UniProtKB/TrEMBL annotation:
Family the UniProt entry places it in: Belongs to the MGMT family.
Swiss-Prot/TrEMBL keywords: DNA damage, DNA repair, Methyltransferase, Transferase
GO molecular function: methylated-DNA-[protein]-cysteine S-methyltransferase activity
Pfam families given in the database record: DNA_binding_1
Name of the protein in its database record: methylated-DNA--[protein]-cysteine S-methyltransferase
Reaction catalysed by this enzyme: a 4-O-methyl-thymidine in DNA + L-cysteinyl-[protein] = a thymidine in DNA + S-methyl-L-cysteinyl-[protein]; a 6-O-methyl-2'-deoxyguanosine in DNA + L-cysteinyl-[protein] = S-methyl-L-cysteinyl-[protein] + a 2'-deoxyguanosine in DNA
Enzyme Commission number(s): 2.1.1.63
Domain of life: Bacteria
Amino acid sequence: MALLEIPFGKTCSYMELSKKLGDPKAIRAVASANGKNPLWIVVPCHRVIGSDGSLTGYAGGLYRKKWLLALESPAAQQSLF
């Protein structure tokens, strides 16, 4: 499953995913399959975003998608000095 190959802390666009699957015109099919993912926490469909970097539909709600992506982002290191 291609979604499982998107590393923790990384994102992939629907177009990139459809190209990876061998059919660059299958963007809507990829989005539809993503939307039907019943295991949206286990199978990381929250890592798939729009080509322009926008957050698009997510079964758990866009606020959860945003939260999960923020949780997976590397925290900015702060200097003590």
